[in-house]
Specification:
409 residues, alpha/beta, Rossmann fold, four-stranded antiparallel beta sheet, 14 helices, 43% helix, nitric oxide dioxygenase NAD(P)H activity, transport, oxygen transport
Length: 409
Amino acid sequence: MTTETTVGLDKETRDIVKATVPVLQEHGNAITKRFYELMLEDHPELKNIFNLTNQRKGDQPKALANTVYAAALHIDNLEEILPVVKQIAQKHKSLNIKPEHYPIVGKYLLLGIKDVLGDAATDDIINAWEKAYGVIADVFINVEKEMYKAVQNSPGGWIDFRNFKVMKKVVESDVITSFYLEPEDGKAFPAYQPGQYITVKATIEGQPYTHLRQYSLSCAPGEDMYRISVKREDPMGDNPAGIVSNFLHAKMEEGSILPISAPSGDFVLDQEDTRPLILMSGGVGLTPMISMLETVIKEQPNREVVFIHAAKSGNIHAMKERVQEITQTHDQVTSYTVYDSPSAEDVYDKEGHIDYEWLANILPTHDAAFYFCGPKGFMRTVYQNLRNYHVADTDLHFEIFGPAEDITA
């Protein structure tokens, strides 16, 4: 990749880009916030793609800024950021981002830089960044092209969105409901890897744009259907109710049609690894963990598994009966429940939060594969505890929307 993608950039251009990265990082959130404002004002149709909730929270501008600046910092050797490129490309594939979107993004990113930095953004700087963005965009386009091709060539695979019918709707807890999905056309559809997600396209009455949301598949591959388990996001503080989650809970019934993308994501269970598997989830982060648990008991029946789930209380703890059933019928599996605010009727293993002392007491070894998913605060705590437990970086697996530094800092 290095020789092909950076050969068109002269040394002066690369030096300017690398020299200006610290300045742009300092103003990164302001630049990308302005970029989105300008772009969506001129191209409102892109509101059908971008998650406007993440815009409001600032997650999306922050994620974009960090990606672009990391790429610029490694402009001499973009191989360095290939793992990050592939992870983001999975998201882009799920959202059906196309090559024609990249020039639009590039144009408004440069306008955002000029708008925020003013006279400090000289013609030389803007020209250097324009060239660098072209190189970075080509890397993403090429990686995504291969991913789209792989999906299209898989049995039953498809590009863009395909209509699936809700075959069953199951209330799992006070806030989580599962939707079982099969293709409306009755034709084949691809298997997936445990931990992957699909994108749902919601067309909601009274909303001028469609809304795209990504939900992990919560059952094991090979079940002849897809299942997503969706938490209803109720209003909290400054955050309004989740538009899509409330729509799904209130409007999607058995027989309803839901357009979805093909499965994506690289946060997947490594089934070549035979060491103990530690699955840790908080709240609705349970969904990819359940898929991994259901998979490992089928495919690796001798692999030791520790399953830890943290929730506020029993009434919002989804799928607890299924985990109990698996634990009772599979000697390889041990499970623990942690409740922050349990009721008098709740049965659990620990009250409060996961902490280092408790983890060190229940975990079989630090030489294991650790997968964890949940709210950022939960993931930050788990990450720090596992680092203190001397787990190798290569054995820590997690997925987050936004910068990994939100968890690892």
